[in-house]
Amino acid sequence: MSVGADLARAREQRGLSVEDVSNATRIRGGLIRAIEADDFEPCGGAVYARGHIRSIARVVGIDPEPLVAEYDRSHVEEPVPVPVPNQPTDPDLVARAERRRPNWTAAMVVALLVICGLAGYGIYSNSTANKPASNANDLPTVPAPSASPSASAPSTSSSPPPSAVAMVPPRDAVVLIRVTGTKTWLQVETLSHQVLFSAILNHGDARTFRDAHGLMLVIGNAPAVQLVADNQDFGVPRSSGNVAHVTVKPAGDVQFA
Question: Per-residue pLDDT averaged across 143-166, rounded?
Fold first, then answer.
């Protein structure tokens, strides 16, 4: 049996129509019929196809994971590597990545040294300006001993200046989902298709998700939620109908499908 045939058979055994499944999942009836016919092209990609399979399977009462695995075996093809002339080896790529990686610690140390240098120069300039000019007819006087540079230099704190801290980019993709309406179904995956969360959230529920590479969300009832991604409050996420598909990557890269 195929994925579509299994879903159709389970729906018929439960006595559900395509419209019943559409109302429960917020997936268009035409798209459900296409999936039951094993036509996943209208889904718009493998990520959305997996989400639709899981949603329909839960409504018709069967385990979605074997169906998703069968879909991956049948429809997701492994990329074929294309040889590139003079392509660098893996150690070369690692070495280049290390050279290109910004050294934020060194940048903060340099910033501290510059600040200390400017402060010392300002103190020296003020002391020179306040010293009275000597007169050739005055009697020679013994100059007062000057303070040592270590005593006049301002003390520095071990914490970096705010400007240096602000230069460090965010390292993870962070998403907060808060249910402000009745309830919604939510599924969260990593970019490598590892399911982190898949359940129904009720009014007042809030969930936070984090991943170093990025997150993919399928929100079944988008008007019922508030979306905050990488410290940006998007309010109600944009959706197709009531279903929103959101991809969040580090550095504030948020995409709505």
Answer: 46
Domain 3-75, second-level architecture: Orthogonal Bundle (1.10)
pLDDT of residue 13: 94
Going by DSSP bridges, is the β-strand pair 253-256/225-229 parallel, antiparallel, or unpaired?
Answer: unpaired
Residues 6+ apart with CB under 8 A from 32: 18, 21, 22, 25, 56
Separation CA 91–CA 213 (nearest Å)? 22
pLDDT in tens, 31-56: 999 999 999 999 999 999 999 999 99
Q: In whole numbers, what is the pLDDT of the chain averaged over residues? A: 78
Which residues on adjacent β-strands are paired with residue 247? 216, 255
Q: What distance in Å separates the CA atoms of residue 32 and residue 40, rounded to the nearest whole number?
A: 10
Q: Is the pLDDT of residue 203 over 50?
A: yes
> For 175, phi and psi rounded to 5 degrees?
-130, 135
Domain-wise residue ranges, the chain: 3-75, 173-256
Whether the CB-CB separation of 257 and 48 falls below 8 Å is answered with yes
Q: In this structure, what token pair is assigned to residue 19?
A: 């419209």
The single-letter code of the amino acid at 8 is A
| Longest Cα separation, the chain | 116
pTM of the predicted model as reported, rounded to 2 decimal places: 0.37
Terminal-residue alpha carbon distance, the chain: 31
Nearest partner of 115 among 150, 151, 154, judged by Cα? 154
